[in-house]
Amino acid sequence: MHVLRSGYENIKRNWCLFTIAALLQYIYLMWRTEKELNLAKAFGINSCIADIFVLENGVSFLGIFSIPLILVLIYRCEKYSLNYNQAMRYKSHFEIWKIQTGRLVIYLLWFSVSLLLFAVLAGRLYHLPLINWSETNSRCFIETGNISQVSFAVVLLLSIFFMMLKFIILGLAVLLIKWLKLREIFGYIITAVLAASEYILENKLGFYSLFSMDYNKAVYIELLFMTLLVGISISGILYGAGILYAKRKEFINEESCH
């Protein structure tokens, strides 16, 4: 009974932490949105809510603020998940890995949906249309030289997917770091390198520009599908590496018992 109560308290605390983090994101988003809208207005560019989705997916939002915050939360939520008392509740290390990754996906989905809902709210506060990428004075046309007939619903779904893709890739990498018993600093070093490389590469072929719903992917569909395939493959490799390591631990434990 005590174990169940403790588990419930952990889940409740984790949900509270992710909700507080999402609210912090909204405050940061409002500041960034106002800054971007003023800049666009100065150049005669009309903005829309879909533009805020693109802003949220970029390194200046996710890489600098959101993902470092999420890493802190993941480390906090999974702090004791691999200690002896917690591990004894499960049948195997493989089961622990599955539960950890499942919990990670649920938390990150909640976080991603919250961010995009906040983007819609911010856009409505500034009286922005849902999408205007079919117009020649839109950000999409300025960035690509082409208009796009993509619907707002498609942009919304792809924005959620790409945001989740980035979160899951880095989240799985952080869990693997924890399983390998490496210091937490390695997770932060990885995110810092990814963010820095984005600026060095001038937002071309960097982690955040590659796995984001942006204007080019709305215009060039083949680029969209190629990116999705690469991102899903990386996620699968990281998840598979976790499974192999968990099963290896089972094998080592069995050998030590004989």
UniProtKB/TrEMBL annotation:
The chain crosses the membrane at residues 15-32, 52-75, 104-127, 147-173, 185-201, 221-246. Keywords: Membrane, Transmembrane, Transmembrane helix. This is ABC transporter permease. The lineage of its organism: Bacteria, Bacillati, Bacillota, Clostridia, Lachnospirales.
